[in-house]
User: What shape does this take?
Amino acid sequence: MEKIVSLCKRRGFIFQSSEIYGGINGFWDYGPLGAELKRNVKELWWKSMTKMREDIVGLDASIIMHPTVWKASGHLDTFADPMVDCLLTKKRFRADQIEPQSGVAYFWSGAKDEASSKESSEPFSALLAPGKPAESARKVAIQFYTQRGLQNVALLGERTEKIENTTQYNPENGALLTEPRMFNLMFKSHAGPVESDENVVYLRPETAQAIFVQFKNVLETSRQKVPFGIAQIGKAFRNEINPRNYTFRSREFEQMELEFFIKPDDVVEKQCGTVATLSENGAPTDPPQANWGWEVWHSYWVEQRMRWYESIGLSRDTLEQYWQKKEELAHYARACVDILYKFPFGTQELEGIAARGNFDLTQHQTHSGKSMEYFDQEASAKYVPHVIEPSAGVDRLLLALICNAYDEEEVTDEKGKMEVRTVMRFHPRVAPIKVGVFPLLRNKPALVEKALEVRDLLRPFMNVFYDDGGAIGRRYRRQDEAGTPFGVTIDFDTIGENGSALEGTVTLRFRDSMKQERVKISDLLSILLPQVQ
Ligand code: GAP
Assistant: This one.
């Protein structure tokens, strides 16, 4: 990860937010290459969801919504993590993320100041890790009582106890932690000039709720029929207690969410006579069938999402599926599959695909008093649709793509010396820059003129980077680090200086193999376009 983080900063993929002020924990900025990568990923998701399908339409809703939305969704009451604070440093941890520790726990009933005979009767405890001297636990306790105003601290009522697998102590210093308290992860603000309880608003912690809230408007204006979906990409905010693993767990991030509304199984049965069950011959694929129940639709979406990840360069062997167990599911959920990526810091979630029944629409119907029912003409039935929700994080996916692309290999340079080539092997579809255009020499006007012509030919169709600085080998390496899949070099053959046979041709270099081919300028677009789109 260290190498990846360093490359991301050096090449302008990801910067720490507000870096010149020391940064702000849990917030990140995407630099020039990162911004392009992110746009490509979002565009490809949007294209696969809305443009390549008849049955999904888009939405772009506001980040701040009526606060009752979050009451109805359950976020106000239950979107919370247990947190604990270190009694010594006040550092905050997520209680469920503390690794269990064993050792000897030291307890004190209080302490007194030997100089002033001032006393503190506040009890304190510290955990002594195996192999450490007892004094180190006492040192922690002395610091604790010093913070409470005592000077020459004498610890009182010391006793010890062997403890196994406890999560009550700060793993960094052994000091006791507070009891867990629930901490709501939603960022709060106020709409309007008055800061009062009446105008509290929340930054959305997921984009999904806007889709449910606008279900009826979209249905009525898009002329869709159930089954159909609403897709949205947008920012979400969670005041994570411990943002960590680079951009993996951030406080501001983007989601790509689809709510795919389906008929309840009893309606499918009424209409088709039966409800299809899962086949043993693999996941269901296109075209969807009228007799699919929620289980088949859910599996279908898991497979669609796996295929999409493959199409942008994450092969199946880099991914895993985790099917949540019954006892892990939210009370309204029927099934949930996490698609995980094997990050260098562990195999972790990229996307969750949940079958949520009709919980969300029903909740909004109850809290708003507005009907969320749909009249299904084909089935002659009225119902609140059920939903399958594939919900992916843009930032996590970017991190996965960056980790997946990073490679180092030993190569021989032009002078025959071995060197390490760092190369980002992005799939051409997501690569921030698609092609580098290089005149062999910058001080030959005929080469430069031709290279600019090639740049202008390709530019309307793909992201081109023109570079005339330094030795050609160095320019190739710079583009290798940026992950640019193709390089086009304009040389003396191109401008006909070595005869007319190769005039109008360029060398096309392939990033991964480093092989070069001579191709006609007039063929460039037809060679490159199908690979980058
Ligand atoms: N509407 C369902 C929902 O929001 P989630 O599992 O909480 O489900 C969906 O979030 C996706 O959003 C996750 O799989 C992850 O990719 C992304 N995500 C969630 N919290 C995140 C965070 N703190 N930082 C970055 N991405 C996050």
